[in-house]
Specification:
With 577 residues, the chain is an alpha+beta fold. It has helices spanning 5-19, 74-83, 177-186, 191-198, 204-213, 227-245, 282-302, 304-330, 334-347, 379-423, 427-439, 475-485, 514-526; strands at residues 23-31, 34-41, 44-51, 58-62, 87-92, 99-107, 113-121, 128-133, 138-141, 252-256, 259-264, 275-278, 357-362, 367-372, 459-462, 468-471, 491-495, 503-506, 536-542, 563-567, 575-576. Strands 20-19-17-18-16-15-21 form a seven-stranded antiparallel beta sheet. A hairpin with a 4-residue loop joins strand 8 and strand 9. The protein starts with a helix and ends with a strand.
């Protein structure tokens, strides 16, 4: 879900519980649009990260500190003046807006107790951190917004603070059936869209979830809902509101293919079947989610050069393969030309000078055959012309029979490298892939460069039964697993006809239960290009049946007898070692 009002509400509840009555001991501004508050609480020292970044606005508690610049920015100095030693009274949220008020009290310049609010607005590119007096006067903000930038609201010292006008949106915490009925009946748009456009704090994704809870198709027109459906939708919204009032949050991250794809402050039924990870703290969830997300993004950035090389080569080879297949189809005419040559040699004497075609009985089919002629050539010369075409197409067919196989294998290899790049978790994994591309000639090895020592290792899991499962993260590891780690009696798994990892199930001389085969097969599906498909067909065979052809690319193997099963990709029943 987006950083919506529901997430902010869960954060408000956590910050109130942890920070209330705590005192602000340190204030830092590590980045131009980022603050770090250190708060001494009864349970120890806590850090609150506040980011008003236009690309990724965030707020959460963290244990990680950040280095501050040598000279503090003006906004940081102002906060230190007013907030150093201040006691946090409460953290509040207006309605279900994406806004937090950190309310504090501290003595002012005259020594009198005064109240202030540090207002955190988490609103995408309009995010801001605004420091105000108790009467709403803005003292300063991390971003200044003048009338030249916004005609709606100025955010400048001395101006009065107010929220952007959201009166057109309603508060889902106080809605009633009549109000919801009016909302659903007043416009013609999908029901989920009417929800998030009409109510504050609800993201499009959670609007879909509310519709799902009510048993309604979110894409259905909202003005087509009957009374019972509107009532069911109101019940879903009321249930959400009750959870928010009780601070009954259950944060979780949803994964697809090992990558975090979404999160929510509540359990989301629409992600049933996907791997989820529950958290006790919304702050811990946010820190984990964006750390994993950023790590995934960073790896894609660091692998972009390799990905570009492989993608370019793959596109070239796919075009080459398509052209070769088309040329191969054209060579299917070769036998027709050979037959025409034979028929002209046998019966071409009936052709007269200047004829453009001749009809001859085809003794192969017993039917008349109409053969085009070059009127400038004799029948025998026309026959020789067709023999020449036949021989040329025959040679082309023989060459293409070999080339199409080679190109198809190259395409398969490049697709497997792209899959390995998607699985790469660190620089060591990229080093192995880079080494593979050097060995295959796709990347030139510098003459003075020494061969890098490869330290990346395959993934290692264990089942509840004590069986060990190994997964190759790239083609070099696939070869190592299959031909060095595995014994002949171990079992080998691979997604059928799609790029993926070699998965080895070590038997240890024991008989393998059926459910363990399914667990290993699910892992093979999970670590393949079909990871996001509901079902994947997996081939499995004893390792001794797997062979590597001479001169084959890394990771390429053959097997001629195997079992197959269709499984749901996943690794939930495997424990990392």
């Amino acid at each position: 879900m987006a950083f919506d009002g529901i997430t902010v509400s869960a954060l408000r509840a956590e910050l109130n519980e942890v920070l209330a009555d705590g005192r602000i001991s340190k204030i830092a501004q590590p980045e131009q649009d980022e603050l770090m508050l250190t708060v001494k609480t009864g349970s120890g020292q806590r850090r609150l990260l506040i980011s008003a970044s236009a690309s990724l606005p965030l707020t959460y508690l963290t244990q990680t500190n950040k280095q501050s610049p040598a000279t503090a920015p003006a906004f940081c100095m102002l906060l230190r003046k007013y907030l150093s030693g201040a006691r946090i009274i409460s953290v509040t949220q207006p309605g279900l807006e994406r806004v937090l008020h950190v309310n504090v009290e501290h003595r002012d310049e005259l020594g009198d107790m005064a109240e202030y609010s540090l207002i955190i607005e988490i609103m995408g590119k309009h995010s801001n951190v605004i420091f105000v007096r108790s009467d709403g006067t803005i003292l300063d903000s991390i971003k200044h917004v003048s009338s030249a930038v916004s005609s709606v609201r100025e955010v400048l010292p001395g101006r009065e603070y107010f929220l952007p006008d959201t009166r057109s949106k309603k508060d889902p915490l106080t809605t009633d059936p009549d109000e919801l009925r009016d909302v659903m009946g007043s416009v013609a748009m999908p029901a989920f869209k009417a929800l998030y456009l009409s109510y504050t704090g609800i993201s499009p994704a959670y609007a879909h979830e509310l519709c799902s809870e009510a048993g309604i198709d979110g894409d259905r027109g909202c003005n087509t809902l009957d009374e019972a459906e509107v009532h069911a939708l109101h019940e879903a919204i009321s249930s959400m509101a009750d959870k928010i009032r009780r601070n009954d949050f259950s944060p979780e991250i949803m994964y697809e293919g090992g990558t975090p794809v979404d999160y929510c402050a509540f359990h989301v039924a629409s992600y049933e079947g996907s791997r989820t990870e529950a958290y006790d703290s919304i702050s811990l969830l946010l820190e984990s989610y964006y750390a994993e997300k950023n790590a995934h993004v960073n790896m894609r950035q660091r692998s972009s050069d390799l990905r570009r090389i492989v993608t370019t080569a793959l596109e070239r080879d796919v075009k080459k393969y398509d052209l070769q297949v088309k040329q191969m189809q054209d060579t299917e005419k070769k036998d027709k030309y050979r037959i025409w040559g034979e028929l002209l040699n046998s019966y071409g004497y009936g052709a007269r000078p200047g004829d453009r075609e001749i009809t001859i009985l085809n003794y192969y089919t017993g039917e008349d055959e109409k053969i085009p002629l070059d009127e400038t050539l004799t029948a025998r010369q026309n026959a020789q012309k067709y023999y020449d075409k036949y021989n040329k197409l025959k040679r082309t067919h023989e060459a293409l029979s070999r080339l199409t196989v080679e190109t198809a294998m190259e395409v398969e290899h490049l697709e497997s490298v792209l899959t390995a790049l998607d699985m790469a978790a660190d620089e060591d994994d990229l080093s192995q892939i880079r080494e593979e591309l050097m060995e295959s000639g796709m990347i030139r090895r510098k003459s003075n460069a020494r061969k890098v020592k490869l330290v990346s290792r395959p993934l290692h899991f264990v089942t509840e039964d004590g069986f060990h499962v190994y997964v190759g993260k790239n083609n070099i590891q696939n070869d190592e697993l299959t031909f060095k780690v595995a014994n002949g009696g171990d079992w080998w798994f691979h997604a059928k006809k799609i790029p993926g990892s070699h998965v080895i199930l070590k038997t240890g001389g024991r008989e393998v239960p059926d459910h363990v085969f399914e667990i290993a097969a699910s892992a093979a599906g999970f670590y393949s290009k079909g990871a996001n498909q509901p079902k994947v067909e997996i081939d499995y065979v004893q390792r001794k049946e797997v062979k590597k052809p001479a001169g084959a690319k890394p990771g390429f193997v053959v097997y001629y007898t195997n079992y197959s099963m269709t499984v749901e990709p996943g690794i939930s029943e495997l424990t990392p070692v």
